[in-house]
Amino acid sequence: MTKSALSPPSLNLIQSPIPWLRAFWKFSRPHTIAGTSLSVLGLFGIAWAARHPLGLSPGTFHVWQGVSSLWLTWLACICTNIYIVGLNQIEDVAVDRLNKPYLPIASGEFSAPQARMLVGIACSGAILLAVVSQSLYLVATVWFSLAIGTAYSLPPLQLKRFPLLGSGCKLLVRGAVVNLGIFLHASSQLGLMPHIPGRIWVLALVVLVFSSAIALLKKLRDGASKSMDSLSIAKVFKLVWWLLTICYSGLIIAARFIPAINAEFLMVTHGLALGYFWYLSRQVQLDSNNTDATGLSCKDYYQFIWKLFFIEYLIFPTACLLH
Fold it and tell me: For this UniProt entry, which segments traverse the membrane (predicted)?
């Protein structure tokens, strides 16, 4: 029996719009969409706080200018995001059929030609929207992100084959390209002199630490399901614990030295986050063979760290707006 006979027919947008949209939502990798959306919103919020301090009315024109620029930037970044994650799924389909069979290419909801078409549309849309914005900063951010995403997934480089280089690609995009590029773009769109203030460097460093922790936890999560030895799991877990503890503690100590930010708000929120992080870390069940229902699984803990990462893009702009 042929492979096509065993596989269900691919979804068609016209014939099955709701199932197709559900599959497309999975294809776009919702957690990355959430991260991209919050980062764009947060970075615009920080730039807005610098342009319109609390208590000063920005005026209708400036509000409209900010909202329209935010909307265009968000669409360009979402298209970039879909291109990167979609390309990765196309290249990883054989592995995903074993490890992530719910993804639309692996499950047969999307055919390979459909996926390639979606990735092509996303890439074209990202470039077009960046050009329409007439912002060199957004064009550069989109181009760098697309180039790194391509080098990560596609031959001949296919950097994801090498753990260190693959992780470096993710850290570079999340930590530097997005934070620095989008903030410079937002500043220029809101009439500010484009430069990188200290609070953005701090945010970029925090994102870099969280991205490293997430990369390590992904290894821990996958390793736990593949009978990774308990000693290795414990070492990875401890490294993540120390990384985030030092990150939070450093932020609390440095808060008063970061210009144009509400130090008290930053200290209190990160103190609460650190306490909750410590509490949940004690609940993690590192032994995947233990059936104790009260423990937190590695997968749940991994998702929890993602949420802490997302929250940073709410805490930082709020601290700037409250300054």
Answer: 32-50, 70-90, 117-136, 200-218, 239-258
| Banded pLDDT at 63 (limits 50, 70, 90) | confident
Token code pair at residue 262: 């509400």
* Cis, peptide link before residue 156, omega less than 30° from 0: yes
pLDDT tens for 260-276 read 999 999 999 999 999 99
> Could you tell me how far CA 322 lies from the centroid of its own chain?
25
Q: In angstroms, rounded to a whole number, what is the distance separating the alpha carbons of residues 219 and 207?
A: 18
The fold of 16-196 is Tetracycline Repressor; domain 2 (1.10.357)
Nearest to 49 by CA among 177, 193, 187, 178: 187
284 forms beta bridges with: 296
Domain residue spans in the chain? 16-196, 197-323
CA dist 221 and 219 (Å) reads: 6
Distance CA 295, CA 300 (A): 10
pTM reported for the whole predicted model: 0.91
Q: What pLDDT digit, counting tens, does each position of 194-233 carry?
A: 899 999 999 999 999 999 999 888 877 665 555 566 777 8
